[in-house]
Amino acid sequence: MSKRMVQFSIYRYDPDKDDAPYMQDITVELEPTDRKLLDALTRLKAKDETLSYRRSCREGVCGSDAMNINGKNGLACLQDIDDLKQPVVLRPLPGLPVIRDLIVDMTQFFKQYHSIKPYLINNDPAPERERLQSPEDREELNGLYECILCACCSTSCPSFWWNPDKFVGPAGLLAAYRFIADTRDQATNERLDDLEDPYRLFRCHTIMNCVDVCPKGLNPTQAIGKIKDMMVRRAV
Amino acid sequence: MSIPVLKFDAVIVGAGGAGLRSAIQLSEAGLKTAVLSKVFPTRSHTVAAQGGVAASLGNSEEDHWTWHMYDTVKGSDWLGDQDAIEFMCKKANEVVVELEHYGMPFDRTDNGKIYQRPFGGHMSNFGEKPVRRSCAAADRTGHAMLHAMYQRNVKANTQFFVEWMALDLIRDVDGAVIGVTAMEMETGQIVIFHARAVIFATGGAGRIYHSSTNAFINTGDGLGMAARAGIPLEDMEFWQFHPTGVAGAGVLITEGVRGEGGILRNSSKERFMERYAPNAKDLASRDVVARAMATEIKEGRGCGVNKDYVLLDITHLDPATIMKRLPGIREISIQFAGVDPIKEPIPVVPTCHYQMGGIPTNYFGRVVVPQGDSMSVEIPGFYAAGECACASVHGANRLGTNSLLDLLVFGKSAGDSAVADLKSGLAHRDLPKNAADFSLARVDAINNRKGGASVFEARQAIARTMQDHAGVFRFGDMLKKGAAQILEVEKQAKSLEIKDKSQVWNTARIEALETENLIEVAKATMISAEARKESRGAHVRDDAPDTPEFPNGRNDKEWLKHTLFYSADNSIKYKGVNLQPLSVETVALKTRSY
């Protein structure tokens, strides 16, 4: 088998030694078994261990290795290396402060997630057995609960870039609707009240970048639309 | 050098299933609790669990916790402690229902109850036929569970220290555990967490093997910390090789696929499990299925150009069932095997998956060690739960879905024990002056060593040594060689050099620290495996073959006992298996067949 060489251009910044960020050009030879971008990054790191990025499950469920790949947000572990145009340009997720190399500070992202009260609210005394839910009602949660909080969506959203402190962003709003849609949750009105705000919900201008980049194939725009519908219906 | 000290009632190390479950107990009891995690909690490896959590809810057919207990004891090849197993199986309904109340999106039956599917080794009526006991959220049960528990902790205002790596246990002169040292990854700052109670929920160390379903973060950090602090590791020779890892990639394909009707086939399309387990077939226990697959491959009936894998076939299932019950598996197969399982079978091989052994605990989640005349004396202030702990409920082989149950039951029980101890006066003990010196010296050595081994090479050496010498089938001479080799690798792994000198998010340094933990686990595994001269559960060796005197190679006369490995002098002690349950009769010793 012929050698597979892949060229990269990678955003590098270590505040401990660099005055400013720069793009590093580097080439790596892949083994035949290397299939995903994360495999290539592992090879790169064996060559230059200062390259810093987050990674864990390497199968697209933990959400650690989100980054900007040739201009589009995605997970390194799910991205086929052979599908990428070279040089492969890697940058940290846009719109969040960079800590080092491909690692961003996700504080603001999680702050927004936490702001929607991301937990089931049901004040009835807990029954001895499970609360019943029909398969149809449970089906409503599909496409919502699978979010892995990788932040690909929120950091591809111009509205989130401009107002990360005020706009909940697609990931947080998807989570908000996940609880609104849950027949076991009793806080729908409070949740809608909390979002009825020019910024928290209504900064979404249906640009739909979130849908385009979600590595799990989820649709935050649709969830946001459903929240807006509920507000309208509630008002009449 | 003065090191900052943070004072808490309790410190929990690890924010996977077990850590989050115990954190709920502590936070809801109003205790000041810190949870340390190398990764944001929902990125912990519990997130990757797929098929379900066991509980005899009986939502689709009759079931009893006593049947579950029987299956678990049998699955453990009688090495599990029957008091802990009874405790777990009896508590299963309670903890699963609680999880539902937290908001976990379980799939549902037509009458609105939690959906349950069959799983390997789970049978009705003491081994008769497969039973639906695995409570599932599609094939994303771990993800749904971890998020639900993180969410519950958000509600309870648990204080998280995200992207902090714990370095070492702090014990006082009496041996009591009084805290940990930890490093903030973003800044490299080392801090002492001074606590009245320390709970370890640090997960497994599947990364000691080359081919593993485990996440990169599964480096046995809690085991390394315990080993360095003089605490023995129990039953480390027992590692589960999951039958169905994607060939090449190692990514997990849940046993739930076989629970939903999937079939394993060899190169002549034969359903070979009928020969190895005529009753349970493809739903036999994991060790049995993994060995059957390895045997098929060894005897030339593997598939592909190199005849080195078998096929997991679900092409006969209704595509609608696959889309509804196994959507994640379909994604994984397309992503990592390049096949759509609706149309083509998935190439699979047995892959390292789960560590049955760990830090010895009792069923209260308290860490217990030999001392004086007793083999099980509690260490004040120290608790452990989940994969890093050994209660022991899994013995020599874990049943699928019992790991999520383990972390719920023992996460809760460790949390409850800590709450009880804290409320009855467990106090802060004085920090020794040199509390952080050991950690500081370790980090300092990694930062400044010249001419040492590279982290990448040391990890490769660990993974290759384990893979080649302590795999699905074990051989006396290979184990001997492996035991000698791992001690050589240990020298390498304890003299690492890093090129990255930054204080900011230094992943090279983190990986070096992880490697010092991995080697503790690898060494314990290899030496314990070499020492155990019988076959039991997942530990099967050629020089302990199946004979009438020792069916399946199991030797209850000499080896019905737990291994306790001490790192300092590589010595082993043994302690008896507890065959006495809490309220029911002993599940009597028997030859294991499915």
The number of distinct β-strands of chain B equals 20
Query: How many strand elements of chain A?
Result: 7
Give the distance, in angstroms, between the N- and C-terminal Cα atoms of chain A. 67 Å
The main pleated sheet of chain B reads as: 8 strands, mixed
β-strand percent of chain B reads 15-25%
Rg of chain B is 23 Å
Through-space gap between termini of chain B: 61 Å
Secondary structure: helix percent of chain B:
25-40%
> Compute the gyration radius of chain A: what is it?
20 Å
Number of helices of chain B: 16
- Give a short account of the largest sheet of chain A: 5 strands, mixed
Name the helix and strand elements of chain A from N-terminus to C-terminus, one letter apiece.
EEHEEEEEHHHHHHH
**Can you list the strand order of the major beta sheet of chain A?**
2-1-5-3-4
Structural class of chain B: alpha/beta
Molecular shape of chain B: globular
Q: Which pair of protein chains has the largest interface, and what are the residue counts?
A: A-B, 56 and 63 residues
The fraction of residues assigned to DSSP E strands of chain A is 5-15%
The number of distinct helices of chain A, counting runs of at least 4 residues, comes to 8
Low-confidence stretches of chain B: none
